[in-house]
User: Fold these one by one.
Assistant:
Number 1:
Amino acid sequence: MANVAFLFTGIGSLSGGGGAERFFSDFFDKHQNSESKYKLFFITDSESVKHFNSVGSLKSKSNVVIFKIINNRFKSIIESFQIAKLIIRYRIKLIQIPLYNIHYFSLVKSIDALPKIIRPKICLTITDAFIPYYYFIDNNRGYNFKNILEPLFQEVNIDSVISWYELFKEFSLTNNLIKSNPPVFCINSRYTGKIFASNVKKQNHIIYAGRFTIAKRPMLFVEAINILKHNKTDFKDWKFFMYGKGNLENDIITKIAEYGIEHLVSVSHALDLTKVFEESKCFVSTQDFENFPSLSMNEAMAAGNAIISRNVGQTNLFVKDHVNGLLLKQDDEKGLAEAIEYFIKHPELHQSMSDESVRLTKEVHTFDNFKMQIESFWSKTLNY
């Protein structure tokens, strides 16, 4: 049995988001109770544990290894010594970084510098679909990507990369992005560990759930509802709900008031959307570039929601047009309004779409499928 570890430190509040953090911590919990040739550890700090626990994640106590974050002038030296001790103590053969940020750089570099006999393989996870679009663009988001990732790519011998995005693999290879030229493995499955009740009566609710940021394009949802209002769409008893937090929250509330659609759209926030998804019929995604592997979308599907989304990236891995949802024919607020109106006016499709969403989460996007893929990648990385 080989020992592998997720390195997950410095995690802040997960309210209003944190899909990658919750996904990997939930996977860790479930992995503890599964048969595997790998013993999985979770290296994190005590403050991060509190944030994971606040959203119901990282429930497992076994194999959680506490790393003490140092905040003095000897930070790099002490933390490097500390991680080396943990690697030796727990005989870690592979360290996977599920969500890289700049604060990991010195620590990862120190792991890379360990003597070969104790140095674990270093596996990077790419969870941001925007990298190929913004990495070389001179704006704030591109600037951050390049400055955060380039030192890691050029100065650390990364042994392998795991990503959900085929586009990142192509982008990385085409641009010789990573100096060590590691293999890039792509995952085409994800799962949610949540269990949803199947006997809850569905309401005529359409949900947007995600951060209120430019990349998520929440204003498209508001604009589409306003178009439907002007089209005199018969909403009957349909209601629209927006769940999230972010720097566009005030703009969204202001625009809803300006359009006079407060009676149709509610803006709120919740750490746990289980009950919301159980009662709703439809989940809408408006974000740029990619919908796979959205945790919110996955949870909405598992709870029996039809999905309406922009046809971007690998969305087809989640959304099958006119099977478990609708893909926008026109990629703007008018196209979204048309899709929502079509869904409302065709109630005969709701149950079959709901059933297919649930089937996909039970047969395709499952823990066993994801576990099989990631463990296969660990095996390949360890054997390189």
Note: The chain has a mean pLDDT of 94.
Number 2:
Amino acid sequence: AFAPVTAAATFGSSGRNILSGPGVWNTDMSISRTFPIRENLKFEFRTEFYNLPNTSHFNNPDVASVSDSNFMQITSSYGERNIRFAGRFSW
């Protein structure tokens, strides 16, 4: 189906945008709670979760060259789970 291009400045007979990478599914969540200490003194605690279910996000496959040994293979991923905590005093 794929072969190296032999003539310069030719693109072959394949269609445009026929190669696609894996999709990305991401879920983020934030939880916050405000604690009143006095009438005009408050403390807010906040937690943020990025990529909550820790789903792998794969990069697009290597399509640079048909003769490459990694052609159409996914060789890396990104997107580990991150958790952030924050506290804030308001007066």
Note: The chain has a mean pLDDT of 85.
